[in-house]
Amino acid sequence: MERKIIITEDGSTTIHIPEWNEQYHSTHGAIQEAEHVYLKHGLAFFCASEGYTKQSQIAILEIGFGTGLNAFLTAIKAEALNLNCSYVGVEGFPISQKELEALNYTETLKHDAIFNAIHDCKWESDFAISNNFNVKKQQKQFSEITDINQFDIVYFDAFGPRVQPELWTEAVFKSMYNAMKPNGVLVTYCAQGHARRAMISVGFTITKVEGPPGKRHMLRAVKE
């Protein structure tokens, strides 16, 4: 399937799939969307929750590793705030080296060494990017996730339900629920009603919060 690098409205790049008319990140701003959805309403929300302490390790699962932007931003934030993050990124179809080289995230965010380390580390292996951030990239389908009570935060960044409705079902969200620890937080850019109902049906408590630029709402789900 053809993939093209495009520039989003905040100047940062993303990958566009013409056949689906779908992007890896919002065309209103790739970095803006990632910071709002995953860093603000996921990581920061969890760190402000009752029971979290600076000594805690934060285990994060990303559904749709894609360009690595969410992992990159999280690694930068972990270093800035002296957090202890363990990050698992799941991706069925990793991007190519040519696509990776066309991304411009380090032009805005700097931290070239962190970005390169995340992408240079081998898949299926744990790798310490810094004292604050450990990553493991896994190439597999989301349906193959069988973890139980392992993650504090889930960044659910799959392609949208318009093009891949099978990724937004009760079965998928049940596996997310099972993979999360009690009081774990799942965040996603999507706010569609059927996705929200699927999350509720498997036990999540849902909050609809303000969306990133270009979207009215997004969803945050908590496993209580």
Description:
The protein has 224 residues and is α/β, with parallel strands linked by helices. The relative contact order is 0.16. Helix content is 31%, strand content 28%. Helix 6 (170-179) links the parallel strand 8 and strand 9 (180-188). The longest helix has 18 residues, at 30-47. The protein contains seven helices and eleven strands. It has one domain (29-222): 3-Layer(aba) Sandwich (Rossmann fold), CATH 3.40.50.150. The N and C termini lie far apart (40 Å).
Give structural attributes.
single chain; 224 residues; alpha/beta; Rossmann fold; eight-stranded mixed β-sheet; three-stranded antiparallel β-sheet; 28% strand; globular
Query: Which class best fits the helix and strand makeup?
Result: alpha/beta
Major beta sheet, strand line-up: 6-7-5-4-8-9-11-10
- Using only C-alpha atoms, the radius of gyration works out to 16 Å
CATH superfamily: Vaccinia Virus protein VP39
Number of helices: 7
Q: Give the CATH level 1 class.
A: Alpha Beta
Tell me the count of domains: 1
Count of distinct strands? 11
* % residues in beta strands: 25-35%
Briefly note the CATH topology name: Rossmann fold
Helix content range of the residues, please? 25-40%
The poorly predicted ranges are none
